[in-house]
């Protein structure tokens, strides 16, 4: 009732060279859908990450034309008919577009997300999955372990941050007590905010372990995030 509905759809689309492209579409319909646009995530083993992002952007453009009316079926029909044009256009743009300077960002600016995980049973697999997602979505930051505390601190484009959250909440990233794959249900969003001028930008995504709370605090302080640490981390120890 408070989070809406999330579902996955897989469709096979013929590309210009007559090869089948398997699109994995994830739609999150908020509670007030269709008055609010759905969140959309696009994955495909046959497309590059940039092409997937272009497909997602085009779907959202189409979704705006159907605001206030059910749209998912129309969006699926549209991408089946137009995928080859989107891919062709994406390749052209990639070839023409100059590389972005470090100071350039999207209109939303750079955002930051702090997550708290309750536990990781299949730690090695879980960590590998998080590393892949952050790489695919061009997010930087830290996966931090200190005793029983597990934190994920991310920085990047707001749309990519949102897409990461959808993946985190809807994918089978861990195992339950019986060893079966399961979704992450024990996750808390501690903070989601725009990166300010006093915050240091992380250049990479790293997995780090800390033996004391002081070490963890220094990590936050070095990134200009002292207030973030004092507000959200110490209460986790209680």
From TrEMBL:
The keyword Nucleus applies. Residues 1-86 form the RWD domain. GO terms for cellular component: cytoplasm; nucleus. Keywords: Cytoplasm, Nucleus. GO terms for biological process: positive regulation of hypoxia-inducible factor-1alpha signaling pathway; positive regulation of protein sumoylation. It is found in: Cytoplasm; Nucleus. It holds the Pfam family RWD. CDD domains: RWD_RWDD3 (cd23819), RWDD3_C (cd24164). It comes from the Eukaryota. PANTHER family: RWD DOMAIN-CONTAINING PROTEIN 3. This is RWD domain-containing protein 3. It comes from Cepphus grylle (Black guillemot).
């Amino acid at each position: 009732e408070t989070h809406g509905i999330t579902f996955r759809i897989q469709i096979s689309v013929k590309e210009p060279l007559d090869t089948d492209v398997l699109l994995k579409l994830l739609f999150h319909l908020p509670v007030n859908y269709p008055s609010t646009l759905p969140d959309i995530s696009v994955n495909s083993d046959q497309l590059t990450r940039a092409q997937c992002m272009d497909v997602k952007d085009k779907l959202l453009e189409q979704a705006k034309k159907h605001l206030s009316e059910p749209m998912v079926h129309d969006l699926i029909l549209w991408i089946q008919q137009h995928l080859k044009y989107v891919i062709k256009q994406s390749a052209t743009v990639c070839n023409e577009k100059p590389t972005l300077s470090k100071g350039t960002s999207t209109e939303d600016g750079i955002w930051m997300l702090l997550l708290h995980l309750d536990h990781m049973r299949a730690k090695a697999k879980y960590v590998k999955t998080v590393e892949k997602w952050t790489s695919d979505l061009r997010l930087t930051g830290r996966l931090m372990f200190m005793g029983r505390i597990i934190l994920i601190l991310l920085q990047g484009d707001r749309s990519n941050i949102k897409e990461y959250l959808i993946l985190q909440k809807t994918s089978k990233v861990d195992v339950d007590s019986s060893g079966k794959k399961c979704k992450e249900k024990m996750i808390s969003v501690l903070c989601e905010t725009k990166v300010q001028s006093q915050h240091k930008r992380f250049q990479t995504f790293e997995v780090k372990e800390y033996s004391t709370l002081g070490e963890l605090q220094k990590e936050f302080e070095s990134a200009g995030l002292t207030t973030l640490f004092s507000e959200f981390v110490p209460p986790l120890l209680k």
